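S.,

Sequence below, as promised.
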Amino acid sequence: MTHRPTPASDLSLPRCRWCGSDPLYVRYHDEEWAVPVRDDARLFEMLLLEGAQAGLSWITVLRKRDRYRQAFDGFDAERMALYDAKRIDALMQDAGIVRHRGKIEAFVGNARAYLAMGGGRGALTDLVWASAADGPRRRTGRGPVPVRTAESEALSRALVARGFKFVGPTICYAFMQAVGVVDDHEPHCFRAHDAAVV
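The prediction came back faster than expected:
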C-alpha cells in the first residue's frame, strides 16, 4: 500500500498518541515518520538531528529544523567538514538552533566521519539498513515500544567505530524509527504498515 499524505488539519483520523494535535508534529507523523529512507544525504541529516534531540523532545528540534538547514549549509557534509573554531563559535550564538557546543562539534565531526566512510555513495544507507535487509521491522501487538534494541546497539557500535558522536543506542533507535528501518506506528494508527520508500 502506498502512503498518500493526509492534510494535518484532518484530526479525525486515528494516529499514534505521541504526535498529539500540534500541526507541525501531525504533519511530520503523517508524511515522514517511519517512511523508509534510502538516501545517504537524508539519512545523514536525520542522524544529526536525532543527536541534537538528546535530552530534549523531538518537537523542539523539529521546530528548529529549517534553521538547522540554513545554519549548517543544507547539511552539506563537505562544507560542514571544513568548519573551524570560529564558525563553531558563531553557531553557538545562533538562537535558532540548540546551542550546545558538544552537539555542534559533533555535527562537524560527524560530517568528517560521514565523508570518510564514503557518504553520499550509499555507504550510510547500507550500514543503516543492514539489520533490515528484507524491509522494515513492523510493530506487532500492543506492548510498549522499546527505547533501544539489539539492532540499535549494533548500529551505535558501528557508527562509533567510524568516528560518529551522539549516536548512542537510544538515539539510534529513535533514528531507526524516524527513517523507517522499524515501523512503530501504533496498531490503531491510519499510517500503520503504510509507508512508501523515499
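The domain at 20-183 is CATH 1.10.340.30 (Endonuclease III; domain 1).

Coffee later?
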